[in-house]
Amino acid sequence: MADFEAKAFSGIAAEIAKSKIMAIIPARGGSKGVHRKNVRQIAGKPLITYTIDAALACPLIDRCIVSTEDEEIKRISLDAGAEVINRPLELATDTALSEDVVRHVLKNCMMKGELPKYFVLLQPTSPMRNEKHITDCIDFSLKVHSRCTISVTEAEHHPYKTFYEENGILAPLKNRQSLSKPRQQLPRVVRQNGAIYFMETVVFLEQNSFFVDPVLPYYMDVNSSIDIDSERDFLFCETLMSGSSMTNG
């Protein structure tokens, strides 16, 4: 994007931003790993409704907007209580960037004079992320004046114990000493789980990135961090949900 356009976004954003928080849920109709996963039933509800329900239940969120090009997703989202913004087809391809999708939503809001001060990006493939996670993440971010917070979970495998391959030969990613060190002696390593991205709108419009220093972590447990991308993920998540229902019942 041209510099002058970025500056224009920034200037307008600073002028009309409100002290409100918007949830943005990107949900296209196509998917590679699991066919039409966003509308597929899991534990009795379409996958996307878990994220919509969690967003609407969060007392700190003022608006919940789903960005999609798909008619079935639009209908389900509206029935669940979310607003819908029509996504251009060029932003619904396998190669489309989430940054461009979010920018399209914010630009649409800006044209109506409804740009929020903050937004929280919630991917619909994280059904175990609930309203408490969202509320705690936002509350934490506001209290410490974070302009960028990303939800993370402990990495299952420490990268210092991995190799890279070059010309058929393995070499330590870090060094030989790290391969044999106890995990407790290595730096704490986390991974983004894709569940929550909290950002100040102006910062995102200026940088066009969900990672803008200084980035603060919001920690989530492994089960809550499930990101559905395969049939195995669906089955595992449904098993967890069923077990939770039996326990709570």
Task: Summarize this structure as a short list of keywords or feature phrases.
Spore Coat Polysaccharide Biosynthesis Protein SpsA, Chain A; single chain; 249 residues; seven-stranded mixed sheet; globular; two-stranded antiparallel ribbon
Name of the CATH architecture = Alpha-Beta Complex
Averaged pLDDT: 91
Assembly level: single chain
Biggest sheet layout? 7 strands, mixed
CATH topology-level fold name: Spore Coat Polysaccharide Biosynthesis Protein SpsA, Chain A
Find the structural class using helix and strand composition: alpha/beta
- End-to-end distance: 52 Å
Class in CATH? Alpha Beta
Number of alpha- plus pi-helical segments:
8
Task: Give the structure's gist in a few sentences.
With 249 residues, the protein is α/β, with parallel strands linked by helices. It has eight helices and eleven strands.
Fold and architecture overview:
The chain has 249 residues and is of the alpha/beta class. The chain has one domain (3-153, 191-229): Spore Coat Polysaccharide Biosynthesis Protein SpsA, Chain A. The chain has helices spanning 3-16, 47-57, 71-80, 98-111, 131-143, 176-180, 201-207, 231-248; strands at 18-26, 41-42, 45-46, 63-68, 83-86, 116-121, 148-154, 163-166, 169-172, 190-200, 216-219. The strands form three sheets. A seven-stranded mixed beta sheet has the order 5-4-1-6-10-7-11, sandwiched between helices. Strand 4, helix 3 and strand 5 form a beta-alpha-beta unit. The protein is globular. The model is unreliable at 13-18 (pLDDT under 50).
